[in-house]
Structure formats: C-alpha cells, structure tokens
UniProtKB/TrEMBL annotation:
This is Cdc23 domain-containing protein. Belongs to the APC3/CDC27 family. GO terms for cellular component: anaphase-promoting complex; cytoplasm. The lineage of its organism: Eukaryota, Viridiplantae, Streptophyta, Embryophyta, Tracheophyta. One of its GO terms (biological process) is cell division. It comes from Aegilops tauschii subsp. strangulata (Goatgrass). Residues 60-72 have a biased composition (Pro residues). Keywords: Nucleus, Repeat, TPR repeat. Residues 1-16, 413-435 have a biased composition (Polar residues). It is found in: Nucleus. Residues 1-25, 40-78, 358-377, 392-435 are annotated as: Disordered. TPR repeats lie at residues 197-230, 590-623, 624-657, 658-691, 760-793. The keyword Magnesium does not apply.
C-alpha cells in the first residue's frame, strides 16, 4: 500500500516498512519516494498565496518503454498477410456454420418440425443477426402459428421480403390497415408491392375485407397477369363477380408466355448446375486444390488406377476425366461400358475437377486441352520410359488392335508439358537414346492426332444432334403439358365463374365436360353440390355432397352447405352424424361448428344453435355464412336488432353474399318496414337473379307496398324459374284474391295442389275463396281438410274461426288473415 501526503510544495509518496537515510524523526519509520507529476494532473497548493510551484522529485528511473521496436516493411507486410489469412479463415468458419444452420432450418421446415426450426433459427439470428436470417426466423414463426412473434421481429424492416412477411403477420392478426401501409407506404407511392403476384394478391384481400371492391379487383387482376397459374386470384375475382371469361384468361398467349418462362427457368437451372460443378464449395476446393503425392496415397483404392508402363505410379481420376472433346457437352457424353473401363480409372464425382484445380491454384493460368488437330506434331526426344508410356496408352492390356473409347479418354489426358513429364518421373535431360526412338515417337504421335481428331469430330456431331433432338422433344412435351394444364384451368375456371354468377345450370354443363379423374374429386363434387343447392334441388345436392364426403372425408370446404341441405331435408340423424365426423376431423374449423349449429336448429333449440354458430364466427371471422346463420337464429328468436347486426357483419366480409341481403329483407318485412324490405330483396335479386325464392319475397314486398301489378309480374318470373316451388304459386293466388280475381286464384291453387297436396294454408285459402263465391259446402270441406292436416298453432285458431263463421254474412265477418 502507498500513502500519499502533501508537505509544503512537495508531493511525497511513502511506503511503510523501511526508513531511508537522513529522515526527520517524524518520517523515520517511512520510506519516501517522490514521483513525477504527469502533465495532465493539476495539483492545487494548500495555500493560494504560496508563490513556489510544486516540485516533483523522482528517486527511481522511469520504466522502460513498452512499445515494440520498429519492424522492417517486409516483416510488417508478412504480419498483415497472416492477420488477413487468420481473419479470412475465421470468416470461412463462420460462413460454414451459418450455412449449416440455415440448411438445418430449411430441412426442419420441410419435415414440418416447426418447433425445431424455430429453436435453430433463434440460435442462428443470435449468432448472425442479418436481416435475411431474421426473415427466415419470421417464416419459422409463421409456420409455427406465431404471427405475433413474426410481427415483433419484422417491425421497421425495409427489405421487400421483410415487408411481405410483416404484412402476412398483420393480416393473420387482423391488422389490415397496418398490413396495407406496409405493402403500399403512403409516403412512398412509387414503391413496388413486394413478392410480385402474391403481394398483389394479399393486397387485394385487404382491399376486399375493407370494402374496396374495385381496388381489390384491380389487385387480383394484376396478380393474375404476373402469374397466370395463380388460381386463388382468379377465384377471388369470381367471388367478386368481376372475373373475365376463363377462355380469355387462360389463352394461347398465356401458354406461349408460360413456355418461354419455363424454358428460361430450365436453362437457368442448367447453368447453375454447371456452375455448381465447375466451382466447388470452399471446403471441397480446399481439400482438392493441393493434390500432392502424399494426398494421392491417401485417396481410396477405387479412385486410383495404375498407369500402364508405370507400376509404381497411380493416376487419380482427377487426370482422366478432362478428356471430353471440346465440342461435346460435359454432361451429355455417355459413360463407357464395363469392358471399356477394365484398365482405366472409374469416373470421378466431379467431372471438371481438374479445370477447377487449375483455375483455383493461382500459380499458373489454366492450360487448355491439347488437341492434335489444332496443334502441329512436335518432335520429341523421349527415353525408353516415355516410349513405354506411349505404347502403354495406345495398346491396352486386352490386346485389341483398335483403341477403345476408354483408351481415347486416357490418352487425351494433358501430360505433354514439361512439368507434368518430370512429375511423372520422365528424364528430359537424358538424350543418350533420343535418336533411337525419334522416328517411332513421331509416327505414333501422328496416329494419335489423326485418330483423336476424327473420333472427336464424329462424336461431337453425334452428340450435338442428339442434344438438339432431346431439346426439341422436351420443348414439345412442355408445350403439350402447358396446353393441357391451361385447358383444365379453363374448364374449372369457367364452371366456377358461372357458379359465382349463380348461372348454375350452365356451370353444371361445364363441370360435366371434365375428365372422370378430375370430376371425381372433392372440390369439383362440392361445387356441383352447391350448384344444385342454389337450384333448390336438395336431393341432387345431397347426392353429390355425400359422394364428395365419402370420397374425401377430410375435406371441410362446402360441408357447411351440406349441413344446410340436410337441414332442409329434415335428415336429423344424418346431420348429427355429419357434425360428429367434422368435429372429429377438425374441431377448430368453422364448418364443423356450423354443422353442429344446424343440427340443434333442426331440433328447434335455437339458443344452443346460436352458441355453436357464434363459435364458428369466433374461429374464423371471415366466414360470411357463419354470420348469416347467427342472424337466422336471432331472427327465429325474434331478436331483430342482433339479427340485423350479424347480417351486416356478413356483408362486410362478402358484399355479394345474397343470403345476408335476404335475411335483412325478411327482418324488415316482419317489422312492416316494406320499403326497406323491398330494397334489400332487390339487392339480393341483383346478385342472384335466378332464385325463385328471392323473386317470390320481392313480389311479397311489392304486394305489401300495394304495387300489385309489379308483384304479379315478379311472381310469374318466380314460377317460370322454378315450377316445383310452391311458394310463388301460393303468393300469386293471394295477390289475385286481393284483386278479387277469385277464379284465377282458384285455378292457381289447383295447380299448386298437384305439387304440394298436403299444405294446410292452401286449403284454408281455397275455403276463403269459396266463401266469397258463396259456395259454402266446398268452403266447409276445404276448412275441414286444412284442420285435418294439422296446421301450425298460429294458423289453427284462424282456420277454426273462419269455419265457424261460414254461414254468417260477410258484413259480420272480421277480416281474418289466412
């Protein structure tokens, strides 16, 4: 420990334990050491009036300088090179680690190991916090159903892919405004929508769910223009009712453009494949660039072959492969047969490894292959060993006189440079026997050149012709496949478009044109069932829905409509079984809970049915039909305020959902708001102009507004649209009774009795007409038949009252509503 004291103008640092010489009695037990005051220190004197500055006394020499001596420039450069190499090695190791982790994450996502992918990707982002890795982590979160986590890590990112993933997260969290601002920033109007066609599709969905139909249609059209095979965009256009004819969308021009894109994509993949084989990965190249004799000895036995004439030397596959003629593609030459490869090395893993070795070694530029056609024969002076090498290459061990393809491959190996000759053990400086073998060597080299050139040209022409034929065959097959695919999409698209326009009969005719394997699929059968449902042909709809459910039990799309079909057919047992099956398949699907709700609604348990429909809305608030079913149940409970609320929610999801417009019309009709009822019925009729039910209710609203002529005209249209529907016939008879056209009303009711002979309200209306015509016995008979058919409790009292007052004069009878 050091103790510092100030005495006068001196700064004294003392160390206890020793007493130096000539000390005062007070300082006798201390050792005094005075240190220099640094120039940055400022020590104020004890008294401000002291004129003497502080004096620093040093009793020890200053410490030696710790800075290293100056190195010469070459040493400093070498140190910098070593540092750069160390940094480069560390960077390669980091890149290798990052590449491995990214590969593992993608592999986990492919195998649906989402939790494992999230864990590994979190480690990846902690070690390498690049934005591309953050995008991969957001993708893992979205796969793992964690959009809130993806939203958190991507907020504020500016790359296009990050913006798209952030918009997807916002869309799943129902943050539509924020998703729209991410895809189309208000402050940057010229910024393109990220991810091309899928980005435009997502933006179209946002516009659709926020009520901007025209903007949504524009985005869907743009997405379909960028990607003609984006079926989801065409499907949304059909739902909006603005899709163009499928024959105009999937045209021959589209097929040509797809073929060009596919060709360019395949060419790019081929070029990438070639480049990947020409340029190996850093780890592989590091182990293969420096091929020394030590490394050659360590190679496996199946990768080496003994060079004829040189038993002590083994040539690797590295020096055998690069012998393909220059005019033949490297990946198109057939491999030699087993008999041809009896004396040479098997083909290596990478065909162009030698070329890569020459380009990456950096010591010398890559040497081109020696071609005897382009180069004149050179006179060489070879010793006996080199002559043995040439003869060993020309004459294979099997003794065949004609050199095989394997021999041609081996003799085209570039070994004629001086460096390579010396490496293989040749003695270029020994000319003692050069004149002895000069003529023989020149003769054999001429034969080599002639044979190699002729065979190379012939093989090159053959392989070029074969490659051209294969390319033409592939192009023709691709064109045929694209035409078949577009033809299938034209049929499906046109059928779906007509179904969305509620031209159901035409849609059924289109669907019948599909081939049997395509028709007998769950999606097509459900579309056919929906078409029959809109045609109010519930028996046929039940048949196709049941077939679809039996063929694909796990298909949930359309099962909510199927449950409604069974509801209308009063199939309580089948409806209950269907609901249990759907719940067992996916209890978190809105279709399953809609089926359960219809099952309770059929039992007149409207409160329980309402709870199930609300559960469906809670699971997916973008299912318009679930909102509509909630409105129906509230209407059955006479809670018209909540009924109107749910109908409007359904219209916010899908403005063309005519069932919600119909439900609003029924509510206003019961509340005797006839003008509102007529407006909503007309809106529903504009969406589905072929529904006889909508025509009938619109006629009822017009009749309530005392517009009887328009009402009669609408009833005529409804009867013509569906002659099996009894409701418009009955309503027409009511309008005729109001106009006092009793005979026409009776004729219409007689036609109705042929269709629905067990309707009590029909016989009650016939009794009222006979009473007006003063045919009392027929009136009593009709009232009796109506009572025998067990009418509803509300109609029962009215029919009994009318039957009791049959013999009373009309002035004494009250205006009973039958």
């Amino acid at each position: 420990q050091h103790i510092t004291s100030n005495q006068g103008s001196q700064t004294i640092q003392t160390t206890p334990g020793r007493a130096p010489r000539s000390l005062t009695p007070t300082q006798r037990c201390f050792r005094i050491r005075l240190v220099p005051i640094p120039h940055r220190s400022k020590i104020a004197p004890r008294k401000a009036s002291n004129p003497n500055p502080p004096v620093a006394i040093q009793t020890r020499p200053p410490p030696a300088s710790l800075s290293p001596p100056l190195l010469p420039p070459s040493a400093r450069a070498a140190r910098r090179r070593r540092r750069r190499l160390l940094l480069a090695g560390a960077a390669r190791e980091r890149r290798a680690m990052e590449t491995l982790m990214v590969d593992r994450v993608h592999s986990s996502l492919r195998l649906f190991m989402n939790r494992n992918a999230v864990f590994l990707c979190e480690r990846l982002c902690a070690q390498f916090p690049a934005e591309t890795n953050v995008q991969l982590l957001a993708t893992c979160y979205l796969h793992n159903n964690q959009p809130y986590a993806s939203y958190h890590i991507l907020k504020g990112k500016k790359l296009p892919e990050s913006r798209y993933l952030f918009a997807i997260s916002c869309f799943r969290m129902n943050l539509l405004r924020e998703a729209e601002e991410t895809l189309c920033p208000v402050n940057e109007p010229n910024v393109e929508v990220p991810s091309g066609a899928t980005g435009h599709y997502l933006l179209g969905l946002i516009y659709r769910y926020t009520g901007r139909v025209a903007a949504a249609a524009e985005q869907f059209t743009q997405a379909l223009t960028l990607d003609p095979l984006l079926w989801a965009a065409y499907e949304e256009l059909c739902i909006l009712g603005v899709a163009e004819d499928a024959n105009e969308c999937f045209t021959e021009a589209t097929a040509l453009r797809l073929q060009q894109e596919q060709t360019s994509t395949s060419n790019l993949e081929k070029s990438n494949f070639v480049n990947e084989n020409r340029v190996l990965s850093p780890n592989v190249s590091a182990s293969l660039v420096d091929i020394s004799p030590k490394h050659i000895k360590q190679l496996p036995a199946n990768n080496t072959a003994e060079v004829p004439g040189y038993p002590h030397l083994r040539a690797t596959a590295l020096h055998v492969q690069n012998t393909v003629p220059s005019n033949v593609g490297q990946f198109d030459s057939p491999s030699p047969t087993v008999t041809q490869t009896s004396g040479i090395v098997p083909p290596p893993l990478f065909r162009n490894l030698h070329a890569y070795q020459n380009t990456t070694s950096g010591d010398a530029p890559a040497k081109p292959k020696v071609n005897a056609v382009n180069q004149p024969p050179r006179r060489k002076y070879l010793d006996e060993a080199r002559l043995k090498k040439v003869t060993g290459r020309l004459f294979n061990p099997s003794g065949d006189s004609v050199p095989r393809r394997s021999a041609r491959l081996s003799r085209d190996t570039p070994i004629n440079s001086n460096s390579n000759i010396s490496q293989f053990g040749g003695n270029g400086s020994d000319h003692s026997s050069g004149s002895r073998y000069e003529a023989v060597d020149e003769m054999w080299t001429d034969n080599i050149a002639a044979t190699s050139s002729s065979l190379s040209i012939a093989e090159g022409r053959y392989f070029e012709q074969d490659k051209a034929e294969r390319t033409l065959s592939q192009d023709s097959k691709m064109a045929t496949g694209i035409k078949e695919l577009l033809g299938l999409l034209r049929t499906l698209g046109e059928g779906y478009r007509l179904s969305c326009l509620f031209k159901c009969q035409e849609a059924l005719e289109i669907y019948r044109k599909l081939p049997e394997p395509q028709f007998n699929t769950g999606w097509v059968l459900c579309q056919v069932g929906k078409a029959y449902f809109e045609l109010v042909d519930y028996l046929e709809a039940d048949h196709f829905f049941e077939f679809a459910h039996r063929l694909s039990p796990c298909t949930l799309e359309g099962m909510d409509i199927y449950s409604t079909v069974l509801y209308h057919l009063n199939e309580e047992m089948r409806l209950s079984y269907l609901a249990q099956e759907l719940i067992s398949v996916d209890r978190l699907s809105p279709q399953a809970w809609c089926a359960v709700g219809n099952c309770f609604a059929l039992r007149k348990d409207h409160e329980t049915a309402l709870k199930n429909f609300q559960r469906a809305v809670q699971l997916d608030s973008r299912v318009a039909y679930a909102h509509t079913l909630c409105g129906h149940e509230y209407s059955a409970l006479e809670d018209y305020e909540n009924s109107v609320k749910f109908y409007r929610c359904a219209l916010q999801v899908d403005e063309r959902h005519y069932n919600a417009w119909y439900g609003l019309g029924v509510v206003y009709l019961r509340q005797e708001k006839f003008e509102f009822a007529e407006h909503h019925f007309r809106r529903a009729f504009q969406i589905n102009p072929r529904s006889s039910v909508l025509m009938c209710y619109l006629g009822m609203a017009l009749h309530a507004l005392k517009r009887d002529e328009d009402a009669l005209e609408m009833m005529e249209k409804a009867i013509f649209s569906d002659k099996k529907n009894p409701l418009p016939k009955y309503q027409k008879a009511l309008i005729l009774v109001g106009l006092q056209k009793y005979q026409e009303a009776l004729d219409e009711l007689e036609r109705l009795r042929e269709i629905a002979p067990h309707e009590s309200s029909m016989y009650a209306l016939m009794g009222k007409i006979y009473k007006q015509l003063n045919i009392l016995d027929k009136a009593v008979f009709c009232f009796g038949v109506a009572l025998d058919l067990k009418p509803p409790a509300a109609d029962l009292a009215i029919i009994k009252s009318a039957m009791e007052k049959v013999h009373l004069p009309d002035e004494l009878m009250e205006d009973d509503d039958l």
